[in-house]
User: What shape does this take?
Amino acid sequence: MLLSVLIFLLLIDNVAAITCFNCESDFQGALRCQQPCEGSQCVVWKWNSRSELAIKQGCLQGVDKQWTAKVGCRTNHLGASLCVCDDGPLCNRVERAEQTTRPLPQIRLPAVECQSKILSTGFVGPRKEKICTSNYCHVTKTETYLEEHVTPEVLSVSNCGDLPEFDFDVRLKNSVGFPGLYANGCYRIQVEKRAATVDCVCSKNKCNEMIPEIETGHVRCYMGKDFRNTSQVDAHEFCDGDFCLIQDAHGRVSKGCISLNERNSWSHLKSGHRRILGVKQWLCQAHLCNYDIERAMKTVRSMRTEKSNGGKALSGFLVLILGLLVVTVFC
Assistant: This one.
């Protein structure tokens, strides 16, 4: 019996989808709902916008559930709240944080001191620096290439968190336009020839004083933005990274590459399909795999098959060892 359970645990990797409310406040504060969405988790997110309560409900798929998108409610230092649930269809009701019949765990966010400063290659004059407090420290670096093969103009901005309503362990949105990046990781994102952005969020005091080094990955990817659909490419624009990317942000399609430094993060990006509140992403790790969705997912399935075969070989080896141990004990 024990042997059967062990084999089952070694081979199974199944995640059931659940149905979630898919709603968002409009400019008048009224909650507008579309057809429910499906994901591995549901979310309800509340924040103040122009002195009005704003609400967004939707689905998460492909975001690390163990370390980042943990089930529970969290409130950041500016009063924005986010609840993640997976305990049944339509679990992300607006009042879920206050519900007492099925209470969700309360997740405590870190409290840190951060450095606030702006550095630019074109800036002349005294630098203004100050210390601020937040749940997370944030730093971005924008590299702008005015000409090819010329040192880029660099603008670095360090601050307390990202925009206030985005300041959570689960980064549903961010100021660089690529949701789902992980806290304590650094990412270099490029979707156009003349610009690349580094985005880092960290959770220790003054951890945003320096930008960690990010080594460019070696996977060649198609690059471009404002495509009409996910099958369109620019056959003359390429970049290199650890992952190739296709992103469909409510009809705005971009392709490019992501290089990363996740040494300090518990969570790590993985190849596959992700959905973060209506933004769809496909990540893959083979040359030019982001030509279209079909090629991207074919690459992902191929890599998973290789890993699965390796896992089955390991499982078979473990079963053989267990069998030998049983024979040794009883003979």
Observations:
- The radius of gyration is 22 Å.
- Residues 112-295 form one domain.
- The chain has a mean pLDDT of 88.
